[in-house]
DNA sequence: CGGTTTTGACCCGCGC
DNA sequence: GCGCGGGTCAAAACCG
């Protein structure tokens, strides 16, 4: 499992947009595009977790990154590369801890848990009328980010299709679909019910297209102009929609 | 006018 | 079967 984060920094050169506050802006490449400050300060206050389709609402944070992938906790190794063209990348490598550092007995426990979990998952699939050849792969990744904004730029264009007040959370949960035709990725955004300073952003599925942000960054100058303008519009729209919120927090 | 947001209704799975 | 909670739909409103 390799997850690459890139940082085109869409804020650079954009007028009327407040400068990014430390750790308040996290963007997305596959899921996130990290801001300069986040990459430069690995200890800044952010976290990442992924969850199985059956275990929603379990996003948490262990140190910087927490990954719970299909029932296993994964050991994470992070590395930050700064290549020649100022395109900073963060590589996240995940290893199954069952092989990496568990003692022998614990390996068997993990294997047993895995078998039980697989059987349970298979039963759930069959109870839904899914046969053996039906593959249900809906990766859900949740980012827990300390931010004053619910809507953070993640490099993709989203269309809101629902809003729901969920139990035990006074803050609404917003549902978004990727606006790109044919892309079925969905996004769920809500304030952490336990600490409203944090925003939980869950992604269902994987984009089958490039982010407009990535295109902008790697495109030839003429293309870059087109996409950059799109980015500015998105950024300004986001800033306008939350301008009152921002103004109350900048003093 | 086209794209986005809002919001009530509807659907579905799950537990009792 | 029923109620509840979460997710989605779709029509109307909104906006640039």
TrEMBL record:
The chain crosses the membrane at residues 97-120. It is found in: Nucleus. GO terms for molecular function: DNA-binding transcription factor activity; sequence-specific DNA binding. Signal peptide: none annotated. SUPFAM superfamilies: WRKY DNA-binding domain (SSF118290). It comes from the Eukaryota. One of its GO terms (cellular component) is nucleus. The lineage of its organism: Eukaryota, Viridiplantae, Streptophyta, Embryophyta, Tracheophyta. The keyword Transcription applies. This is WRKY domain-containing protein. Pfam families: WRKY. Keywords: DNA-binding, Membrane, Nucleus, Transcription, Transcription regulation, Transmembrane, Transmembrane helix. Residues 147-212 form the WRKY domain. The keyword DNA-binding applies. Its main location: nucleus.
């Amino acid at each position: 499992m390799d997850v690459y984060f890139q940082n085109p920094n869409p804020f650079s050169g954009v007028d009327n947009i407040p400068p990014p506050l430390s750790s308040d802006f996290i963007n997305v490449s596959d899921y996130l595009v990290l801001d300069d400050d986040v990459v430069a300060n690995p200890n800044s206050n952010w976290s990442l977790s992924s969850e199985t389709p059956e275990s929603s609402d379990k996003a948490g944070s262990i140190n910087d990154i927490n990954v719970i992938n299909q029932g296993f906790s994964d050991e994470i190794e992070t590395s930050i590369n700064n290549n020649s063209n100022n395109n900073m990348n963060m590589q996240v490598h995940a290893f199954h801890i069952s092989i990496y550092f568990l003692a022998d007995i614990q390996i068997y426990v993990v294997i047993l848990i895995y078998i039980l979990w697989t059987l349970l998952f298979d039963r759930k699939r069959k109870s839904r009328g899914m046969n053996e050849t039906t593959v249900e792969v809906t990766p859900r990744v949740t980012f827990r980010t300390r931010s004053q904004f619910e809507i953070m730029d993640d490099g993709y264009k989203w269309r809101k299709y629902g809003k729901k007040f969920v139990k035990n959370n006074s803050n609404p949960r917003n549902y978004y679909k990727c606006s790109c035709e044919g892309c079925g990725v969905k996004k769920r955004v809500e304030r952490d019910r336990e600490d409203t300073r944090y925003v939980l952003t869950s992604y269902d599925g994987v984009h089958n297209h490039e982010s407009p942000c990535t295109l902008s960054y790697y495109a030839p100058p003429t293309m870059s102009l087109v996409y950059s303008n799109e980015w500015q519009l998105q950024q300004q729209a986001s800033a306008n929609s939350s301008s009152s919120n921002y103004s109350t927090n900048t003093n």
